[in-house]
């Protein structure tokens, strides 16, 4: 799987060689719907995420990608199957155990989800204040280091309402890595960004993952940036894996579903028209 | 607003509340209820206590001197704050 | 035939309505217990509560004080007109003070609080929910019920009696101002009648208990509506309306209950 990665951002993988990291998150045969009788979001889904990897989960809107993040984070429990984080089933954890597990996860929400009543500095300091007993000086230094890693040390006293969307997401990223978690999850990190911010965000995701030796899970539908930095990609269709592989393998794939996605074709396995009456019925044209 | 400024304003708010409470307690309410001055009890039996109710004020020469803890049927008990200076009319 | 169907539909809707509200009530009760259970740590971090007292207490001060003043004025006027008919205008002080300490202070303060602080709490929590801030906090292993909801609830419980006391005190002064300098009621009679008739524990004390009960009710209703709001702009707007309506009706209903318990003989 990690044979040759000629991407410029993947030099870390080359340096490590061909060793596969251990499995950090494992999803086994999961079925999930939000309420009994509601649409089945995931059916028989199985995936693996290994240490040191940047893994992308892609698919059309509403295919269940964000649901996977919620299952791993323990916000919802699967009806059947296992969601294992560091070899323990998230779905079966007590509230206290879940709290402990969550301290080892960092999550970046789609638009940052910064606390609007706290400054940039205080936002990043939040997990440190809540979960550690560090002195104010040490905390100050740590927060500044995290902000420096995302290039926003100078913005530390601004309020979330005073910074742009792209900057807000970077602050949220600094907050997500405040406790140096082994698992970092990204919910649509590239959505709505300008080209410069896109490049910055992609670079940050890869560099931080390498620096922390962590596992990064990207839920996204941005093909170009993702294929630049990902080690492995899963495509979700109809609640299960439609295709999977390294970015290179997938670029060469002939699977119609993958091709429609990668080529951005309007019609294919994912239909253009919303299912309903035929054209003839709606426009009263009767075919005799 | 800085943390210390918030604390001061909240402190002012609570202080105003306490002042208002003090005002109510002293100027508005019946402070006889919390007086710790020595008291003594008077009991009186009446054929008809009319509209006398418990906690009705007991006045001596128009000045409130005590309260009526019990007013039942034809018996009234009154607590007075101090011995009267002279035997004059006490109105309940 | 359609009449029967319409009636059955109506009964079905009624059943659904009742069941949904009972479910809400149960859900709210469980959340209330959960919030109280998680409040212990606030003793170690009192600043979280005092920061909130600024938002619900200090920022309501002006509207409460001015309203108290005007209510006091009106009590002075109306009280005088009515008492004058029976030649009892000397009892104006007593009338003003009892009306305020027993009823108007706690109740009107609670209604104003629901409109000013209640709606802003609902909107704040609702917007935090819509912006995924509460989810983010959960994912950072911090329970929003303890970190966000509990401080606001206790701030409301503390601020409400303070505001009601201020309302009552200002109201009494307002009644005095209208009654004595303006109308000419005797100042000595105004205060002495009042002091003779207003009991510290049964009138002022009960009024205080009422305002604490209202504080719990109004603040929790506001927080619950915000927490359960749909995470959209319409959802938040509907939630703030519900806060005002449900709080106001609850305050009036609780007032009747408490008055019956406290002031009956």
Structural topology:
The complex is a heterotrimer of chains A (288), B (92) and C (265).
Chain A (H helix, E strand, L loop, with lengths): L10 H6 L6 E10 L9 E9 L3 E5 L6 H9 L6 E6 L2 E2 L5 H8 L2 E4 L11 H12 L4 H14 L15 H12 L6 E5 L7 H18 L2 E5 L3 H7 L2 E6 L2 E6 L1 H5 L4 H8 L15 H4 L6
Parallel strand pairs in A: 3-8, 3-9, 6-7, 7-8
Antiparallel strand pairs in A: 1-2, 1-4, 4-5, 9-10
Chain B lengths: L2 H26 L11 E6 L11 E4 L2 E10 L2 E6 L9 E2 L1
Antiparallel strand pairs in B: 1-4, 2-3, 2-5, 3-4
Chain C lengths: L1 H36 L8 H40 L6 H39 L2 H7 L4 H40 L3 H11 L2 H28 L5 H31 L2
Description of the molecule:
The complex is a heterotrimer of chains A (288), B (92) and C (265). The longest helix of chain A is centred in the last third of the chain and has 18 residues, at 195-212. With 288 residues, chain A is an alpha/beta fold. Chain A folds into 2 domains: 1-104 and 182-272, Rossmann fold, CATH 3.40.50; 115-180, no CATH class. Chain A is globular and about 80 Å long. In chain A, 36% of the residues lie in helices and 20% in strands. Residues 1-18 of chain A have low confidence and may be disordered. In chain A, helix 4 (120-131) packs parallel to helix 6 (165-176). Chain B is α+β, with helices and mostly antiparallel strands. Chain B is built from 1 helix and 5 strands, in the order αβββββ. Chain C is globular, with a radius of gyration of 22 Å.
Brief summary of the model shown:
The complex is a heterotrimer of chains A (288), B (92) and C (265). With 288 residues, chain A is α/β, with parallel strands linked by helices.
